[in-house]
Amino acid sequence: MEKKLFGTTSPHLRSQETVQSVMKDVLIALLPATIGSIVIFRLNALVLIALAIISAVATEYIIQRFLMKKESTISDLSAVVTGLLLAMNLPSSAPWWIPIVGSAFAIAIVKQVFGGLGHNFMNPALAARAMLVASWPVIMTGSWVTPGADAVSTATVLGVLKEGGDLAYSTWDLFIGNVGGCLGETSALLLIIGGIYLLFKKVINWRIPFTYIGTTAIMMLIMGKGIDGTIVHILAGGLMLGAFFMATDYASSPVSPKGQIIYGVGCGLLTALIRQFGGYPEGVSYSILLMNVAAPIIDKFTKPHIFGKVKK
Q1: CATH number for the domain including 246?
Q2: Per the domain annotation, does 14 fall within a domain?
Q3: What stretches of 8-112 show up as alpha helix (H) in DSSP?
Q4: Which parts of the chain sit beneath pLDDT 70?
């Protein structure tokens, strides 16, 4: 039988993965934390999650169909992931309109204005959270729902530490999520389970989350927090959510292996410095956003050499 050689254009290596399959894996990974937030914060969490997702999907559909006059891509589930991630960054006592405004901003301004999926230079959910904190700081940081109780005006775990108060929660409470705070930052255990799933499915690799969490831990030890204090800083706040689900966003993080390590270290350094010296007790959101901006520069100086290229 005569064999013929066919020449085709790149790419020559293809993957079975699609945007939809990747987003589906992210949703599955977020499922434990999502269910946990509903169990802990009950109807409040369910309403915020539903409104954030509906707003994100509706905004993307309206912009693409009626403004951009093209087929909608809501079936790729990226808008659903953005809405859910934003909800995970909201306090359980937030009013109903907060997730609607936040998701609309994330999709319309941060994502679609820059060209849609893959072109956003920041994580849309984190950028929306930063906007909400800047616009309504009391709502976003003031009132928290304590598990098993009604809404109570109380500081978060990191807020108590920032003010030098005595921590009322044990390490076990922080680990399983028996604390007040944002929907997705209470249970470190459920977030770790989701992170392990993403690693197993090879949706993400170890470089960014491990260097991020590790650098934060090392910095806290250097700053004199001790073993117990460092463990609290690792388990409390949005570190686990940010390290596994936010900092690893494909569009806004470096591509090169060396760049991903530098990026993760940078996130960890900034998070520790903001928590220690900043006026705001949490540093995850702003750390990741700052490193999102730095990602193109990191890629520029860490991109691998072209095979066969000879230095001048």
Answers
A1: 1.10.3430
A2: no
A3: 19-41, 43-62, 78-88, 97-105
A4: 1-15, 142-155, 162, 164-166, 168, 307-312
